[in-house]
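Hi,

Apologies if this is the wrong queue. I'm a grad student, and the batch job for Ionic transporter y4hA from Phycicoccus sonneratiae produced an output file that my downstream script rejects. I'm not sure whether the problem is my script or the file. Here is the sequence I used:
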Amino acid sequence: MAAAGTHPVLARTWTAAPLVGLAALAATWGRDIGAVLVLVVALLLAAAVLAAVHHAEVVAHRVGEPFGSLVLAVAVTVIEVSLIVTLMLSGGDEAATLARDTVFAAVMITVNGIMGLSLLLGARRFGFANFNAEGTGGALATVAALAATCLVLPTFTTGQAGPEFTGGQLAFAAVASVVLYAAFVVTQTVRHRDFFLPVTAKGEPVDEDDHADPPTDREAWTSLGLLLLSLVAVVGLAKIESPAIESAVLAAGLPVSFVGVVIALLVLLPETIAAANAARRERIQVSLNLALGSSMASIGLTIPTLAVASIWVPTPLHLGLGPTQIVLLAITMVVAVLTVVPGRATRLQGTVHLVLLAAFLFLSMSP
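Support response: The file is valid. Your script probably expects a header line. Output copied below for reference.
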């Protein structure tokens, strides 16, 4: 990661951006803001996103892979869960499908968008995008199991009316999610860490120290703190922007559910930029760790949290996907398996995933 040697002006900018963003968040929280403030908040949101990417790369450079991508994936998802719960508390019955729409959007954006973009960038520059099929395949299998258990099964269970789990079923899904996610993290960081390290075209580990000396412990801890502040600013400012986004969505004649897609796109911007940067440096495995790790964390952390929150949140929790969404998820998983098995990909595979993302976005706007 090219974190060391950052220009002093940029370093001050990345330090100030999350603090200014949090100040703006405190000043505008709970208020109706005009068009000028909407634009200012949007600019601060973009600055917070870029700051989050910078500090994530500093931390990742210090701790190495796969811990670096795990830090960003978990941090973003924890705050995404907080945003979902906050919106559900204030959204009434109309927010019953908010968690489903947001989590499904996160899966499609990460598996098709981030993964597809990374493969396209890597293959375009280096001819092939090379990665470790064993680690990536295990991550993809975990994502598929989580998505099927938590998002597909509620559509077909009969214990509760509608695409909703009963209390016992939701508890089982929550425990299963925790077990799957914990098993993957142990595999990624302890048992088979080498499966998730970047590789060259010959299958050899990429030298992680060929760009710059790693930051000091103090710099890494400072960046970790600023990363968390940046992510809070990103999600908070995204929530501030959400009424304007919702108004724009409704004015355009789009479904209300598309608001969740837009917010998911905003929240996942840091990971998208970080993954693209890694792909340009021939670290495709880092990009895939970010994509699949974020998808996994989005389900594996969200569902258990919502299972606990459902005890006091009065809003129904409709997790089951509709027929169109199930078809898109099935196609995505089949294509992803075919992409992962060879251990390398061309621009074709990246393009296929991006087209699937485009299909998801289009059908979200025009169901």
